[in-house]
Amino acid sequence: MNEELIKILNYRLKGELPNPFIFDDGTPLRSAADWERRRAEIYKSTIELQYGTMPPKPDFLRVELLYTSCSYPNSYRIVTGTKESPISFIMYVFRADSKKKAPAVIDGDMCFSYLYDEAFIKAFTDNGIDLVCFNRCELATDVAAYSLDEIMSGTGEAEIARAALDEILENGCGGQVKRAYPDYSFGTLGAWAWGYSRCVDALEILGFTDMDTIAFTGHSRGGKTAALAGALDERASIVNPNGSCSGGYGSYRISIDAETEDGEIKTSEPLSNILHHFPAWLGEGMREYVDREELLPFDSHYLKALVAPRALLVTEGASDIMANPVGSHQTTEAAGEVYKFLGCEDKLFWQIRSGKHTHGGEDVRALVSVIRHIKYGEPLYEGLFKLPFKPIEKAYKWTSPERVGDEQIHICQNAKN
């Protein structure tokens, strides 16, 4: 790929990316056996500060068959949560082969049009992979603070939209999950991520899925959700956020202005943009770091490192400047130091394709390739690992500590893949 596909006009770095190999008390990690304790520290900031405290596992979960067909997706109602406040949403499954267990990709973006594209669906099913979909907005509403004036003004929907927005602003997160778990501080992204895990629960009950090969994916705000869900649920053997921007796999410390393939000048998304337009997505504590991102105790490489030693595939569009492909690549390289430390370098994949803020052909091709590579040993898609801009100086100087014996390999072999 042409390293000048996009041109970086301004590169801003607010301090070095934090070192994941230093405990909070200042002592260094000395072996891979230290990683689980360090991972627990990273979780406190990367998850609980960034997204709030997460909703727990449900008291119960029931799956109801709504529709089954050989030509259309099977649909199921998932009923879960607490007995006092049950939660209900629909899961759709496009089966690759009804006669045998297949790998599955879970995607919560049924509120986006790409999940209704037959080519998108068949790219999975024609390759022996089930596509499992749900609409995350059934779990928590998603109304932007600006949408009433720009979208709803003068329509009959305005009053309904205003009520939804008022609930978000008042309660921090609309929808069923917050009503069931009001004592937890999670925002909308946490509620959506919880839905991914409930789909995994449902697949376990249904019994037609290869439970060792489950991938989480999603796009944009759905990419943020997939990133969070993948960090939380180790049953996802492959985690693939696509174009997830700030609050996902971009970067808080790194920002850019760049010229796209079409000659447009764009700027990456800052933290302030999320908190202004979508105040319920992140944890309340993040407001303290607007324009002070260098003080954050984490950056997105920590979120990526929480997936290790499971497989991680980061997909971006080169001209999707708002998603910050430069910051995403830098933090992927930084997370790669953790993968190296754990002896699992071969589980980290990335693709920065030509194009803008979409979720389509090349993104799916990369995910299918990684799934079939891990499951069947097939060669990887040639579009991986190609940089569309000139390399820049790394945003960190630290590296992974030297290995101690065969401990790292032991950890990887015993991880649930």
Low-confidence stretches: 406-417
Could you spell the SSE succession in H and E letters?
EHEEEEHEHHHHEHEEEHHEHEHH
- Give the CA-based shape: globular
Strand content: 15-25%
Structural class per helix/strand content?
A: alpha/beta
With strands numbered from the N-terminus, the spatial order across the biggest sheet is 2-3-4-6-5-7-8-11-12
Q: Mind describing the biggest β-sheet?
A: 9 strands, mixed
Work out the helix count.
12
The averaged pLDDT comes out at 91
State the separation between the terminal residues, measured CA to CA.
31 Å
DSSP strand tally: 12
- Radius of gyration over C-alpha positions, nearest whole angstrom: 21 Å
- Range of helix content: 25-40%
Please give a structural write-up.
With 417 residues, this protein is of the alpha/beta class. 32% of the residues lie in helices and 19% in strands. The chain contains twelve helices and twelve strands. The protein has a nine-stranded mixed beta sheet, with helices on both faces. The two termini are 31 Å apart. The model is unreliable at 406-417 (pLDDT under 50).
